[in-house]
Amino acid sequence: MADILLGSRSVKSHGLKVARIHMHDWLILLLLLAIVGILNFIESFHRFVGEEMMIDLKYPFKHNTIPVWSVPIFTILLPIAIFFLYYYYRLDVYDWHHAILGILYSVLITGVITDAIKDVVGRPRPNFFWRCFPDGNGVFDEITGNVACYGDPEIIKEGYKSFPSGHTSWSFAGLTFLSWYIAGKIRAFDRRGHVAKLCIVLLPILGAALVGVSHIDDYWHHWTDVFAGALIGTTVAALCYLQFFPFPNHVDGWAPHAYFKMLAEMNGDVQSATARINSLRVRRPDATSDTTAYVGCEIDRGNPKFISQDTSPV
């Protein structure tokens, strides 16, 4: 469908209406945020780790190349800035609101799934040995053979949260959503053969992949942790995006579902108004009759407007 502009729908004119419609969605979003906080606070399952298992868990313990605090910046704030630029260009509060709500749900749902699995699985990180025994002297229970860690409790706690990778899942959740959003806006799959558009579409995906690879290089995750995180983030991002927008390769993939719903409602109003006009009878003019007949209808800024004509013979 070609672009049909219905006039600006700014925050000032339609913002309150959109907020009321999606009030419950924002409340549930706050609940998801609280759940993520609780899951991070919970002590995860401590999987059995014997001395012979430490062979694969003795990689160096060093700081992240990409710190935790930076993840929300490029997975949430950067996409929201891009959404705002498009809003400034088109003044469509529906597009802006749905994009922001969609990416927040994408990241937070991914966070809940990822952290819940982390707590239940309790897989040791590749650098678990040095988290458990900072001085390099391993201590194991004489009866069970399990590790007897004596390092920093917080560092040990994080050592049992390898699977899946949280950095990776969050990155793919936010940046995959952004990639699909960009693909729809620039019509990357319009079948015109402009393959260069894919360079723009795939750039966020590349960024998310590099985040995952960095955690393998830093020995914070096994490669399977990163793969699982990428799969979770990508799947959730796609599901959340499709709640608000068509597939990027769809002919209407450039606008949210709400836009076309509004367009359909407007067309319905026009048809209804036309039907009312056609049902009117033009009465024969006389001294006491109304000499005005309605002969048509036109749209004025999205609203049906009746066209009248004086039928008086004078």
Q: What does this molecule look like?
A:
- With 314 residues, the protein is mostly helical.
- It is built from 10 helices and 2 strands.
- Strands 1-2 form a two-stranded antiparallel sheet.
- α3 runs parallel beside α7, α7 runs antiparallel to α8 and α7 runs parallel beside α9.
- It is elongated and about 80 Å long.
- About 5% of the residues have low confidence.
Give me a quick take on this structure:
By secondary structure, the protein is mainly alpha-helical. 56% of the residues lie in helices and 5% in strands.
Biggest sheet: strand arrangement: 1-2
Main sheet?
Answer: 2 strands, antiparallel
Class of secondary structure makeup: mainly alpha
Radius of gyration: 29 Å
Unreliably modeled segments: 281-285, 287-291, 293-299
Query: What percentage of residues falls in helices of 4 or more residues?
Result: 55-70%
User: Looking at the structure, what is the overall shape?
Assistant: elongated
How far apart the termini lie comes to 48 Å
The number of strands is 2
Percent of residues in β-strands: 5-15%
The number of distinct helices, counting runs of at least 4 residues, comes to 10
**Nearest-integer average pLDDT:** 83
Helix-strand string: HHHHHHHHHHEE
